[in-house]
Amino acid sequence: MPGIRRILCPVDFSEHSRRALINAVDLSRMFGAELLVLTVAEKVPSVYRGMALPAANVQADWERHVSKELDNFLGGLDFDGITWNKALLIGKPHEEVLKAAAESGADLIVMGSLGRMGLARILMGSVAEKIARELPCSLIMMKSQDLVE
Known about the structure:
This protein has about 150 residues and is of the alpha/beta class. The protein has helices spanning about 15-30, 45-50, 55-75, 95-105, 120-125, 125-135, 145-149; strands at about 5-10, 35-40, 85-90, 110, 140.
């Protein structure tokens, strides 16, 4: 894969996305590419905004929670030797990932093939599938370790 300068790795805190991130870090080292680790938090549903707390507080609390989850998820991973950044975006995951890929000039997206499971996946559809339909760049989808071995 010549010309890989920027890699985008969207994560949803699942084991599938952890495996994808580990591989994205390895690819960043291999190509000397910059890595952007991205997570997307959906907006707090309006039903919660009608509660006693002001909507801005509920949304801000949610964003702080997701930001802490991202920091915990990244803890213990070895980013030595690469240039990397992390980002938290608010919106629909597939839309924000595609927008981030275009805006960052990503040459490659590395992501888990599975994330949410069960009813959440049926209702929301697969983020990976939606991204694959509108690819702005190359894509590597990682399967879980147990599916590969």
